[in-house]
Design a protein that fits this description.
It is a single chain. The chain is 60% helix and 13% strand. The chain has 5 helices and 3 strands. The protein has a 3-stranded antiparallel β-sheet with strand order 1-3-2. A hairpin with a 2-residue loop joins strand 2 and strand 3. It is elongated, with a radius of gyration of 20 Å. It holds the Pfam family HTH_5. This is DNA-binding transcriptional regulator, ArsR family. Keywords: DNA-binding. One of its GO terms (molecular function) is DNA binding.
């Protein structure tokens, strides 16, 4: 049975995060993306397949080239997950600040 890939698996890899970073700046061809990394074309293709399966990259074929664009909609899931911890730590640090600001008796 094939495991479902999710956005967390995609961003867990530093190469995939770097690819997303490149594509966040501009649309690039698949070959141009590959030129930015010291790895084989099949390795880049594997990373791109994972990114497209997770909805982080959209690839559009135009003639002989495939143009890659970042899609940040899938990152909303990550943002929601991180937000719960941001709220937790903000609350805890606010309480700590209140304790530290209280005058000693």
């Amino acid at each position: 049975m094939k495991a479902r890939r999710d956005v967390f698996q995609a961003i867990a890899d530093p190469t995939r995060r770097a690819i997303i970073g490149l594509l966040a700046q501009q649309t690039l061809t698949l070959n141009t993306v590959a030129d930015n990394f010291n790895m084989s074309q099949p390795a880049i293709s594997k990373h791109m397949r994972i990114l497209t399966e997770c909805g982080l990259v959209i690839i559009v074929k135009q003639g002989r080239e495939r143009h890659c664009t970042a899609s940040f909609k899938a990152l909303e899931e990550v943002e929601q997950w991180a937000a719960q911890y941001r709220r937790f730590w903000t609350s805890r640090l606010d309480k700590l600040e209140q304790l530290l600001d209280e005058p000693e008796s």
